[in-house]
Automatic annotation (TrEMBL):
PANTHER family: HTH-TYPE TRANSCRIPTIONAL REGULATORY PROTEIN GABR
Domain HTH gntR-type: 11-79
Ranges in a coiled coil: none
Similarity section: In the C-terminal section; belongs to the class-I pyridoxal-phosphate-dependent aminotransferase family.
InterPro entries noted in UniProt: Aminotransferase_I/II_large, HTH_trans_reg/aminotransferase, PyrdxlP-dep_Trfase, PyrdxlP-dep_Trfase_major, Tscrpt_reg_HTH_GntR, WH-like_DNA-bd_sf, WH_DNA-bd_sf
Matching SMART domains: HTH_GNTR (SM00345)
Pfam families associated with the record: Aminotran_1_2, GntR
Protein name, as recorded: GntR family transcriptional regulator / MocR family aminotransferase
Keyword Heme assigned: no
Keyword Chloroplast on entry: no
Amino acid sequence: MDIHIEFAPGRGRRDEIYRQLRAAILDGRLRAGDPLPPTRELARRVEVSRNTVSAAYDRLTAEGFLDAHVGSGTFVRDGAGRADRPAPGLPSPLRPVEIWDAMPNAPRSFVTTAEFDFRAGVPDLRRFPFDTWRRLVANQLRESAADVLTYGDPQGHPGLRAAIARQIGLSRGVRAEPDDVLVTGGAQQAIDLVARVLLRPGEHAAVEDPGYPPPRLLFQTLGARVHGVPVDDEGLVVDAIPPGCRLVYVTPSHQYPIGTAMSLRRRLALLDWGGRNDAAIIEDDYDTEFRYAGRPLEPLHSLDSANRVLYVGSFSKVLAPGLRLGFLVAPPSLRVALTKAKSLADWQTANPIQAALAQFMDEGGFARHVRASRREYEARHDLVRRVLERDFAGLLTPIPSSAGLHVSAFASADMRPVVKAARKAGIRLYSLEDFTARKAEVRGLVFGYGAIPLDRIEPGLRLLRRVL
Ligand SMILES: Cc1ncc(COP(=O)(O)O)c(C=O)c1O
């Protein structure tokens, strides 16, 4: 480990080495078990005699900060430091721009800790194709393929763009050439890039209410004025979009969190609205690889003859959110600007991971994985619905939905206290109130079944029934 020692004029070098190492141990920068550099090496690096370093080490050892093991080196002694306490931060005059104070804290972890995890939007990581993925990534990390480790095309790995274009063409009827696709760090980055490229500070944008919170918050941080537009059983109420909106974000295939699909009538009305208002439409198709009944309605992107729709997809539900893989299909008029925005944001999405996914898709493993996951999630979807209808009649009204990783249900009372009480009982789930500004009108619960195994669903819902 490189340890930085600074000598101030007028201070003894041995004392400075002693003092600075001691401070590093006390504030946790050096932790129990960390090795110190050999005396000869540190002496050479900081340009003092070896005796000076040895004398500092001897004093720290005598005071119980270090353990010297003949032959293997000098280490920070157990219990000597304060690894349990973060290093105290020095006060700084720097403050974030005001908007960041208004943002909710970022969730730090989605690791399941509850006995029954009904959180929406979390896929089953036990289903992740670990062995195949290890092989695919290992295949990228060969000396003979080292190019994958250099900077690549910000628009995305060409093979992956081609595989995505094929995949969405087949499964969703989205017509796209590889050049229309931009690979992103999840759907979230796709939405961010679109907003950066299309919205000026002070302009108006619309999102669904209830709706997925991150796009609304993101647009706000970019200085946009964001309006929540009500959703009914046909989807976004297009007539309620305030005048002057330049951008609207929707989840037409599987409204988040209500779960319904936007009707064809509304889809056409939204496209028509886009034309009349010279606006762009973000279509977030985040989980419709999992469709259990009926024919999916045509994506807005396919119905759009005016090239106003930006189609966003994610690999977070079909593979794993931690991979941070998503994509955007954008009209050619925006491609150059979007690629510039992507390269300025993070240059590119991790190349070896993109290449691994391209191979997974080309080999057919991805399609098989989606099919097997769909069967599993369909069984969970059906079970949640059956139990809600059977055991929660009069309390909850399940909302028809036939896709994705969650089912929602309306309630007549405020569900936030129920969510709190459920949490105490070992159940994690969200309320519809978590996703709306209209908390007195939109009440209910959201049942995610991505994270909870089939055989835990009934016991979990039985317990919830007692909490309700
Ligand atoms: C509506 C919606 N869009 C997108 C995503 C996925 O986002 P990302 O690809 O950034 O992980 C989620 C995940 O919960 C979601 O609920």
